[in-house]
Amino acid sequence: MSGSDVCVIIAARNAAETITTAIASALLEPEVAEVVVVDDASTDATEAVARAADDGSGRLLVLRLDVNRGPSFARNMAIRQSRAPLISILDADDFFLPGRFAKLVGCDGWDIVADNIIFVEHASVRDVLSGSVAQFDADPTELDLAGFVAGNISRRGTRRGELGFLKPVMRRAMLAEHGLHYDEQLRLGEDYALYARALACGVRFKLIRSCGYCAVVRPNSLSGQHRTEDLKRLADADLDLLALPGLAAGQRRVLRRHERHVRDKYRLRHFLDLKAAKGLAGALAFAVTSAANLAAVVEGVARDKLEPLRRRRPSAMEAGAASARYLMAGSAAKSR
Predict the structure, then answer these.
(1) What's phi and psi for 107, nearest 5 deg?
(2) Does residue 78 fall inside a structural domain?
(3) CA separation for the pair 27, 57 (Å, rounded)
(4) Which domain holds residue 266?
(5) What is the CATH number for 35?
(6) DSSP SS3 for 185
(7) Do 258 and 252 touch, CB atoms closer than 8 A?
(8) Is residue 61 assigned to a domain?
(9) By its UniProt entry, which PANTHER family does this protein fall under (predicted)?
């Protein structure tokens, strides 16, 4: 491959405040041949701001959808419009750290490769841009399906850190060989579903713990908003994965765990939606429809009632919430 092999795709909606930084971070990387932005029917100036971020190199393409279709549709559209052999995902309110792709694409033996993520509050972005990021040894490991799915089962009381947050580089030829694309029915967990299906196909997914991606934590981020129906569709995506032939018993077990984990979230949210719309009697009618519904509702409501008590004494992680955190723990890089 040549020195410029990466296409960065950015699905954007109402990202006028952040997309300049995202695009600039991609265009600064010498390995980037293309940056394709798909404005998913924004109601702000996202399209105009994205076009204004052009550095004159001819590498930026900005497309616009007149009807909101969701991140999966936008990403599939960007992939179809691009040509570079490597595809990289970037959210519109995040950015790359300098030198990211030199570390990533320099690895051997992968179809998908991802690095560590630093999560920062919006107010701390300037500190990260100035270089205050811990450097970890790469410590490359290969991710398998069971480990990946298990790494997406969140635990209450801990800050979210699912492996579905990973923003990898993927080989276009691998996606084409296995007929892989983003599930356009999903507006939540679309990354998880794609990576899990790829691993089920036997692709090589390499992780390195050095950090090259900054995820900006914003209270109004679209990634933090989802409908109750989105949870149901994500649980159904696990059922689709379970229908794949050739899965090992351990892979099936962890997929069922993830499906139940997401389905229970849906059941609780649906109960609360019904309570708001129809009152307690209507919500209880749903809860008693099945033992699974009732268990999810009872456990979920009990946890919600206990949450204020737990938060009276913040954990060490919560006490340090203002500081940056990393998706994966790592060992400090030795000085060179």
Answers:
(1) -75, 155
(2) yes
(3) 9
(4) 228-313
(5) 3.90.550.10
(6) coil
(7) no
(8) yes
(9) GLYCOSYLTRANSFERASE, GLYCOSYLTRANSFERASE 2-LIKE DOMAIN-CONTAINING PROTEIN
* Residue 46 contacts residue 19 (beta carbons within 8 Å): yes
Q: Number of structural domains, the chain? A: 2
Determine the Cα angle at 238 with ends 85 and 184, to 5°.
50
Phi and psi torsions of 181, nearest 5°: -160, 170
Answer yes or no: is 64 within a domain: yes
Q: Are strands 86-89 and 325-326 parallel, antiparallel or unpaired?
A: unpaired
pLDDT in tens, the chain (336 residues): 455 699 999 999 999 999 999 999 999 999 999 999 999 999 999 999 999 999 999 999 999 999 999 999 999 999 999 999 999 999 999 999 999 999 898 888 999 999 999 998 875 676 676 666 777 888 899 999 999 999 999 876 555 568 999 999 999 999 999 999 999 999 999 999 999 999 999 999 999 999 999 999 876 555 556 899 999 999 999 999 999 999 999 999 999 999 999 999 999 999 999 999 999 999 999 999 999 999 999 999 888 777 655 555 443 334 344 457 899 887 776 544
The structure tokens 């204004």 sit at: 52
Q: How far is CA 326 from the centre of its chain?
A: 14
Tokens matching residue 214: 């900054």
What secondary structure does DSSP assign to 269-317, as a single string? HHHHHHHHHH-HHHHHHHHTT-HHHHHHHHHHHHHHHHHHHHTTS--HH
Quote the CA–CA distance of 3 and 224 in Å, as a whole number.
36
The rounded distance, in Å, linking the Cα atoms of 8 and 23 is 9
- Alpha-carbon torsion (219, 188, 114, 89), positive or negative: negative
SS3 content of the chain, % helix, strand, coil (to 5): 45, 20, 40
- Angle in degrees, 0-180, between the axes of helices 280-287 and 291-310, rounded to the nearest 10: 120
Domain boundary among 45, 73, 95: 95
